[in-house]
Amino acid sequence: MSTGYAALLRGINVGGHRKVPMAELRAVLEGLGHGGVATYLQSGNAVFTSDATDEDALARALEQAMEQHFGFTVDCLVRGAGYLRAVVDDCPFPAAELEAKQLHVTYFSAPVTAERFAAVDRGAHAPEDFRTGDRALYLYAPQGLGRSKLADALARPAVTRGLVATTRNWNTVVKLAELTG
């Protein structure tokens, strides 16, 4: 039985660099044998179905296919429909009361614990705040991600070392859960 997945590509189509046309991304995913392929926005979100059950293996296969097709490395995360729905359902912030630009989720390649973020001074960034979840971090940034000093602190190499991390705004988080479900 096929499962719905989202592929989250990191750092493509930003500032004219590492261009990945969405039609070509769809073709790469279809070339890997996936069904129901669609893309969402231009920022590296794709949904597909597969009989495979290993998210990490799906991500590695996509990374290899992307490098073969485009000639550069793209970090990818693949997450199943159930996980994506759980990220939406487990949001520790009042998402319904916030603008989408105020709430973001960073998806990680492995579980993260509060200890990883211990050096980040939450009080210095108030009213911005964050909470960790299952391979995810929820960020409340009232002025948006582009103005968030807390987002900068959370993205430092000492915090993210050894992980693939990619961030999506709340509208995209919800839409990917819908598209895969």
Automatic annotation (TrEMBL):
<dbReference type="Pfam" id="PF08002">
    <property type="entry name" value="DUF1697"/>
</dbReference>
<dbReference type="InterPro" id="IPR012545">
    <property type="entry name" value="DUF1697"/>
</dbReference>
<protein>
    <submittedName>
        <fullName>DUF1697 domain-containing protein</fullName>
    </submittedName>
</protein>
